[in-house]
Structure prediction request, 176 residues.
Amino acid sequence: MKKLILLSKLFLIVLVSNNYCCAQVKTKYGDNVSTLDGIMKAYYDVVTVKKGEKPSYERDSLLHFGNVQVGWVHRSQNGKMVFKYVSLKEFHRLSDNGAAAQGFYEKELSRKVEKFGSLYHVWSTYESRTTSTGPIIERGINSIELFYDGTRFWILGWFFNAERKDNPIPPQYLTK
Prediction:
């Protein structure tokens, strides 16, 4: 009986110790990248920029795997749907001055997750505004690829498509 009690105590010590050694992984900006919820929160927080402030390229890059590509669907001048595919650095160059000048707030409305091993695919429905309480300027879906290395998540790339009259968000992507 004493051995059983001793073994139980040892098991509890190991269990508690294991929880401490597997604590949250945070970036230097405090973003919890050890959980899917944590990295998704950081993904949306990092694009939020108050009018007149500069986006944090470093903070964003700490969420992403090296040399990631990102992209979006848009309508060309001739009306054809095209896909723009650029490096994360190029995306910042193209978009961040506008975000800083006007302000940009984006939040997640719904999320659908598919997982196989260490790879995750997230369909994340969003809405965007220029102020936290202003009118919605865009809604759409982010398609985000992630890798979990056993301690933290890395964003491998993301792509988005905005909602339009001819491209409404399907109901299944508007529910939690």
